[in-house]
Amino acid sequence: MNDKNVTSMNYKQRPVRSTHVLLVILIISIALFACVPGGGACGGVSKPAGWAGGVVEDNILYTGTMDGEIVAIDAVSGDYIWHFEPSIGEEKNRAFYGDPVIIDDLIYIAGYDGYLYVISKLDGSLWDQPIPIGENKDNVVGGLGYGEGTLLAGSSDGNIYAYDVQDISNIWSFETGSKIWTKPLIAEGQAFFGSLDKTFYALDIKDGSLSWSFETGGAIITPAAKVGKTILFGSFDGIFYALQSESGKELWRFTDSEGWYWGQPVVSETHVYAPSLDGNLYAIDIDSGRLTWKVETDGPIIGSPLIFDDWIIFGSNDGRLRVVSLKTGASQKRCNIGDDIRTSIVKGGGAIYMGISNRSILAINIKANGDPDEKWSYVTKDQSIDLDRAKAC
Question: 322 near 316, Cβ under 8 Å?
Answer without folding.
Answer: yes
